[in-house]
Structures are given as structure tokens and as C-alpha cells.
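protein under study:
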Amino acid sequence: MADIFTAIGGFVAYIMAAINDILNPLIALDPNPSNPILTVFVISLVVSIITTVANKLLVDHDEMNDIREEMKEFQNELREAQKSGDSKKIAKLQAKQVDFMEKQSKMMTNSFKPAIVTMVPILLVFWWMRSSAISDLIVNLPVTVYYGTLTPIWHTIGPLIYGGEATIPFAIGWLLWYFICTLAIGQILRKFVGIKQGF
């Protein structure tokens, strides 16, 4: 049993060393390594590309949209039948409900496929960012980016939720910057590859 844990530990150490070899040069290439705005942006770009490609390849979006439309029509019909008190139509629609529950379950399963495939690489990248020099750094945003990403709202809400002192003006933690970049890039990429929002 100890040999298995040793083998797993060795494999994890090997993977982490490979990730360090791939991602550590990013910090060195950043024109301002003490302010990793570019490094975190590039990492979020790569992660967004991976998740968008996985989403495009692993999910049948046409089928998902068809199921979504069918379910919307079914819910509207059921609502109308309930409003009008048409018990025969209600009974008929309720008989169909099992079929729609199966379709909904299939839709949910399909929507989770990309998450299953991309979860491990994303967790490894997060581990690297958390254990690298980035984790101790603060990202100083240009004034336009600071206001354009609505960061002042986070600076107002953050101390209320987490306590602590007011934040440095125009600066945020690497994690918040990562989420802002990923959200923006992800939306652009999804539109570019034709993935409709909302499932």
C-alpha cells in the first residue's frame, strides 16, 4: 500500500515540476514581474481557450437548444392548462413530464462533460498560481481597466464580507484579476465559436 502512495506522490511531483517548467517562464517574460497583470491575463486566456474548445467539442449545442425550446414550450402549455383549469390537458401533459425529466437530466449531464475534462488541468494551474510568486503579489490595474471592470464595487463589497482594511487604490489580488479576465475572455470566445449562453 505504501508503494502505491509513493508512486502517486512521485507522479504528482513529476506533474508539478512539468507545470513549473511550462509556467514559470511566463513570470520571467512579464515586462513587470512584480505586477503580474500580463502573466495572469495570459493564463486566463489559455484556460478560457481550453474550456471553450472542450465545451464546443463535447457538447451538442444544437440538441441542447432543441431540448431547451421543447421544455420552454411544455412549461408554457402546462401553465396555460393550469390557468384554464383544463384537467384532461393537464393529465396529458403530466404524463409527458417523465419524458421531459429524462431530457432535462440528459441536458445537465451533457453540460457537465467539459467540466469533467477540464477540471484537473484547471486545478493544476490554480495550484501553480497559488504556490508561485504570483500568490504574494498584488495586481495594479491601469485606471481605465480598474473602472471598466467595476473593481470599485468589489473594493466596496470585499471589506464588508471579509473584514479588514480598505484596499490599495487601483490594486486587486491575482485571483480576482484572474476571474475578471476569464469571465470577459470566456464570453468573447463563446460568441466567437457560436456557443449560445445559458445552460
About this structure: The helical segments are 2-29, 37-58, 61-84, 87-131, 143-148, 151-162, 174-193.
